[in-house]
Write the structure tokens for this entry.
Amino acid sequence: MTLASRPLLHRTVPPQVFWILLVACALAAPLAHFLLDKPVFDWLAQRRVQWSNLWIDAFRLLGKAWLLIWLLLVWVAITGRWRLPFLALVALLIVMVPVNSLKVLVGRPRPRQVIAAAQAPPAASAESTELWGMSFPSGDTAAAFTVAAALGTVWAWPWTVAALVAAGGVGAMRVVDLAHYPSDVCAGAAIGILAAWVAAQTTRRWSPLAIEAWGRTVAVLTIVGMPIVICFTHGTATLMLLLKSYIPLVLAIYAIAKVRRYLRPAPTNRD
């Protein structure tokens, strides 16, 4: 079946759309730096908007690489399919290189750090040199967009659009939380889309047979072990958020898929 003969809702997004989005985000980053960063920062600093409930806090986690890796491995464990999750995992590894390199090179403090430094005594206002304390580019936005773009190479366009909108929402939330400036988010989105393209080109001819043999087992072990690691590295509050939101959501989706498969009529043999 050719692309043109597929039903509209089953068609994938043309690659040109991702290139247009990449160029738009790349051009928006310097424009946002000069036109939006300061006005948005001043507006948010005065109001200190705080949105928080179970699902908003869970949505914030969608930019965290560890959660995206966990969800991709859940996909592998449930379906046994590894090619598309593998592409997204490779894209996540690739995106870390430019993001962390630029954080070190630029060394831009986060908006909330600027506010804290202005309110703190001089001795306590030294800027953090840790990667997590640097603003440009937005790592969460880059991770969300690289997974959305990687999956969008195969997914039908409604799902791809939903994934890209969710990635944009992650970036917007980072700005609202005073973790990043708008230019950080635009740059992160551009880097994420570019990393997905690089991953697609890199893995196009890969056929690691070992993943087919033991990938599902490793996925299951990682799914079980990662929450334990997160408890020690990010605290019990993050672990409880994962237990209350994503784990029940994954179980519900799995149960619905099983019921639909059970209720689906069996194919009939026609002579």
Observations:
- Residues 12-260 form one domain.
- The CA atoms of residues 76 and 82 lie 5 Å apart.
- The radius of gyration is 21 Å.
